[in-house]
Amino acid sequence: MSPKTGKTIKYSVLLPTYNERENLPLMIWLLSRAFEQSENVLAQDEDYEIIVIDDNSPDGTLEVAKDLQRVYGETHVKLRPRAGKLGLGTAYVHGLKHATGDFIFIMDADLSHHPKFIPEFVALQRKHDYDIVTGSRYISGGGVHGWDLKRKLISRGANYLTQVLLRPGCSDLTGSFRLYKRDVLQKLIDANKAKGYIFQMEMIIRARQFGFSLGEVPITFVDRVYGESKLGGDEIVTFASGLLRLFFTT
Prior knowledge:
Layout: E1 9-17, H1 24-36, E2 46-54, H2 61-72, E3 77-79, H3 88-98, E4 103-106, H4 118-128, E5 132-136, E6 143-145, H5 149-166, E7 178-181, H6 182-191, H7 198-210, E8 214-218, E9 220-222, H8 233-249
Parallel strand pairs: 1-2, 1-4, 2-3, 5-8, 6-9
Antiparallel strand pairs: 4-7, 5-7
Helix pairs in contact: 1-2, 7-8
């Protein structure tokens, strides 16, 4: 409940999916558990909704989501599918149009972002009234599990380059587990020119330009158990070109 208005606060979770039929049931269960358990900071005073934005997954993810909606109810699980795979940034734009929450979580549906950290995000935001709270693998208490040495080196190298070139004031610029005030997310999306994986990076750079406040929560990123990673050569090239564009234009 908001200490200022006395009104119930609502949280929306934007959950883009593509071929996540095996991960989605557990993800929805973990999310509902994080929001509903009585010992959590969210208990009773808060409401939530999970918005599944499926990009016409050929593995039948949407059908699984429909089953989950019947189990958890339409007030908590909302389906906002799209006709095809149109990119991560536009998925958030689409989801935000349908979100009714005061605060917006964005996270991956493949279980790499564990919902158990959600109460920590909420508590930190509430304590400092941050505009953004982001999960970080690179501060004390954070980390990565399940990556081979090559991927760890790529991630560390990419993060180091962003810190040197952009000085973002954020330890994990490429992370995608975040909590935003709704109006802040809308303003950042409107200003963002990027697509794909560079989208997350530009969001933080634009936040710095606008003077939004930001806090960090240490998280453990766990590599997906089911399905294949969507990070490939095209995404790496896009990242490099986007990094240079931000360096020269911000």
